[in-house]
Amino acid sequence: MGHVGLYRLVCLSAWFILKAAAESMVITPSKLVVKYGDAASATCSTTEQKHGGMGWEASEGGVDIVEGVQQVTWAVPNITHWDLKPICYMISENVEQLVKELNIVIYKLPDSIDVKKCSEPLNEGETCTLQCDIKSVAPVKNLQVMWYKQQVVLENVTFNENTMSPVEKHLNRSIQASRNDDGAEYWCEAKLELGPEGPQPPPTKKSEPRRITVHYKPRFANDTETIEAGNTTLNCTVKANPPPVYTWEAPHLDETFYGPTLSVTYPGNYKCTASNQRGNATKLFIVKPYPNTVFLVCLLIGIFVALVLIAAVIFTHWKRKQGRAANNSIPSPADQKEEDVELVKK
Ligand SMILES: *[C@@H]1O[C@H](CO)[C@@H](O)[C@H](O)[C@H]1NC(C)=O
Ligand SMILES: *[C@@H]1O[C@H](CO)[C@@H](O)[C@H](O)[C@H]1NC(C)=O
Ligand SMILES: *[C@@H]1O[C@H](CO)[C@@H](O)[C@H](O)[C@H]1NC(C)=O
Ligand SMILES: *[C@@H]1O[C@H](CO)[C@@H](O)[C@H](O)[C@H]1NC(C)=O
Ligand SMILES: *[C@@H]1O[C@H](CO)[C@@H](O)[C@H](O)[C@H]1NC(C)=O
Ligand SMILES: *[C@@H]1O[C@H](CO)[C@@H](O)[C@H](O)[C@H]1NC(C)=O
Ligand SMILES: *[C@@H]1O[C@H](CO)[C@@H](O)[C@H](O)[C@H]1NC(C)=O
């Protein structure tokens, strides 16, 4: 085909004349962002009146040289080439060949995007690698892949490659399973950042979210809980996967009880053990006597102490009186009266 020869010529001479071309030729739009399979068109115009003809060189939608026109339009109903580089050319008055290349980006969202999980169930602390498989996306240099956990971006990956045709991408993301990951959803999203000329907002495709299961043993936030009331329900419920089984023991109880809660009437220490395949944890509930009893005990102690004090005061008083009578150091007025009486008798 004559086009191929002309294309070569254009390429060889392009470097030397692009500057000149930029001044006398204009392509609108200046940048074209088209989805693969869609229609596209661009117009090349010139202000030069006396040129030797102009046209478009392209693997799709080429236009043969036309004379006596101010503009030529390149148009395709359905873009099916990835390496499309339409070039507008013109033979100038002094038989120079001028060229200008259309700035075109042909894009395509992936056919599929999918997250592969690691083998489950995971145990707490284990690492696993999730894989995001992206099939057939272009152009890769405009691709951005984001890893999400729930609604939070974990990682944002871009590619520094110039392949124009669709590529496959497999991204790995290593995670260390924690108890908080149990039930968490991971997913990845492909986004084509095509600039202001591209569709707004940028086209995206998300994978299905993958819910992961983590097995972990029970762990109490507090190993001990003190409860002030008597008639109460002790609640030993704790998070663990698989759900734990509960056993209750108390020194004053002969039986072992089962279940997440225990109704108690009597004070004492109650030990709850929660266990699953991953391990177990123990929590001590200290049930204090009823506040009423405490009050009564205090009241009784108070009364007792008061009685003891009163008794002590009375006793010391009586003891002192006895002491004075024995010494007879300071005679009482009554004693003096008796002495007077005796003196009178003598
Ligand atoms: C464009 O071409 C592709 C591949 O030949 C085809 O699958 C698609 O249906 C075409 N689209 C239109 C609008 O003609
Ligand atoms: C991802 O990174 C690119 C550049 O590295 C940045 O422009 C973009 O905002 C980031 N996106 C998110 C969601 O973090
Ligand atoms: C991603 O992980 C898979 C195995 O899970 C491995 O075969 C592949 O090479 C890894 N890819 C990269 C880019 O590390
Ligand atoms: C654990 O016990 C301490 C002291 O009794 C208390 O301050 C704290 O709030 C408790 N934490 C929880 C999660 O119950
Ligand atoms: C404790 O609960 C039982 C039954 O639920 C009830 O009969 C009893 O009166 C309660 N005792 C106290 C001190 O609240
Ligand atoms: C025990 O506590 C859990 C949360 O810690 C709660 O969901 C549950 O309803 C409680 N059970 C009872 C019987 O109070
Ligand atoms: C709790 O775990 C320990 C080892 O960590 C084990 O020896 C014990 O038997 C377990 N108890 C229960 C009730 O599962």
Quick rundown:
The chain is 21% helix and 40% strand. With 346 residues, the protein is α+β, with helices and mostly antiparallel strands. A hairpin with a 2-residue loop joins strand 13 (143-149) and strand 14 (152-158).
Ends apart, CA distance between termini: 175 Å
The bound ligands are:
2-acetamido-2-deoxy-beta-D-glucopyranose
Q: Which stretches are low in confidence, meaning pLDDT under 50 for 5 or more residues running? A: none
The number of helical segments is: 3
- Amount of helix: 10-25%
Give the topology:
Blueprint: H1 2-24, E1 25-28, E2 31-35, E3 40-46, E4 54-57, E5 63-66, E6 71-76, E7 87-91, E8 97-101, E9 103-107, E10 112-116, E11 122-123, E12 127-137, E13 143-149, E14 152-158, E15 167-176, E16 185-192, E17 204-206, E18 210-211, E19 214-215, E20 224-227, E21 232-235, E22 245-249, E23 257-258, E24 261-264, E25 268-276, E26 279-287, H2 291-327, H3 333-345
The site of one 2-acetamido-2-deoxy-beta-D-glucopyranose has 4 residues, from strand 12 and strand 15.
